[in-house]
Amino acid sequence: MARTMWAVVLDAPGPPEALDIRRVPVPEPEVGWVLIEVRAFGINRSELHTRLGMAEGVTFPRVLGIEATGVVAAAPGGEFAEGESVMAMMGGMGRTFDGGYAEYVRVPAGQVIPFNSDLDWAVLGAVPEMLQTAHGSLTVGLDAQRDQTILIRGGTSSVGMATAVLARQRGMVVLATTRNPGKSASLTRIGVDHVIIDDGNVAPRVRAIFPDGVDTALELVGTPTLPDTLRSVRVHGVVCFTGMLSNQWTVENFYPIEYLPNGVRLTAYGGDAADLSPEVLQDFLDSVKAGRATVPVHQIYGLDEIQQAHALMEAGGAAGKLVVRL
């Protein structure tokens, strides 16, 4: 194994150009940690927040990346076999310790999930955080049931598109929003039943389709659109707050009786590696292989194109996941 590797290092918050690609030492794992040779990794808005200086508890310089997919290079504690295919995510990756924007990443063994698949590494690299968030939002946040209706606010985000794929697998009727009419086709291709162009006031159009409102809604844009999303849901329906594409995270002067429509339930979801079981991951990958599910990859980059990828993410130009394949 080489003693040094290529990695994307952020020395201080800044624009995409602050992401510096340089050689750094390959980390050495101790017992309880796993060294992964990274084959691909997805790009997430969490890393945008870190790059912009919005994340708490981050020290610099730091290799970004809250997820990575690859093969085990070393596991001193014997938790995994060398060469085993694995995914890792969250738990401080890219914030309190160096993350997946590198040729190798060292992570706690508890954050590593094994799998078996011969799908392209770019497809596999898009999966971990996206699937964990989408699956958790549907099951824990919404307790979604077969044949229910769901509104996905922020439908062309990677999590939004993954949620649509999973919801269709459950037989749900899917409504999804996008601010860009040019992205409508990307939603219909993955099975969205009703595409709604988001002008900030989608509740009337949702109720034109379902007069009583939808059964469930996933809020991925953030607090600016949350009141309108709540108004789109029926009495005893559920809204799950999961994402903050708007970068606005809190509700000022929150008065519940005025803010929440009568009988509409508001929940939230934020998961970790432990919330994506190997069984759920393997079942999804097998479904993709069999053509029963799709992974919404927007564009694949090389490591040396990380600045371009971040610029596109920050501009909101993607419809699906941005992935770096090494």
Describe this structure in words.
The protein is an alpha/beta fold. The protein folds into 2 domains: 4-127 and 295-325, Quinone Oxidoreductase, Chain A, domain 1 (Alpha-Beta Complex), CATH 3.90.180; 130-268, NAD(P)-binding Rossmann-like Domain (Rossmann fold, 3-Layer(aba) Sandwich). 25% of the residues lie in helices and 28% in strands. It has helices spanning 45-51, 121-125, 128-141, 158-169, 184-189, 203-209, 226-230, 256-259, 278-289, 306-315; strands spanning 4-10, 19-25, 33-42, 62-63, 67-74, 85-89, 104-108, 112-114, 149-153, 173-178, 194-197, 214-219, 233-241, 265-268, 297-301, 321-325. Strands 3, 5, 6, 7, 8, 15 and 16 form a 7-stranded mixed β-sheet that branches. A hairpin with an 8-residue loop joins strand 1 and strand 2 (19-25). The chain is globular. The chain starts with a strand and ends with a strand.
Characteristics:
Rossmann fold, 2 domains, alpha/beta, 326 residues, Quinone Oxidoreductase, Chain A, domain 1, globular, 10 helices
Task: Give the gist of this structure.
The chain has 326 residues and is an alpha/beta fold.
Shape: globular
Low-confidence stretches: none
Strand content of the residues, in percent? 25-35%
What is the CATH C level class of the largest domain, in words? Alpha Beta
Mean pLDDT across every amino acid position: 96
Q: What count of helical segments does DSSP give?
A: 10
CATH topology of the largest domain: Quinone Oxidoreductase, Chain A, domain 1
The domain tally reads: 2
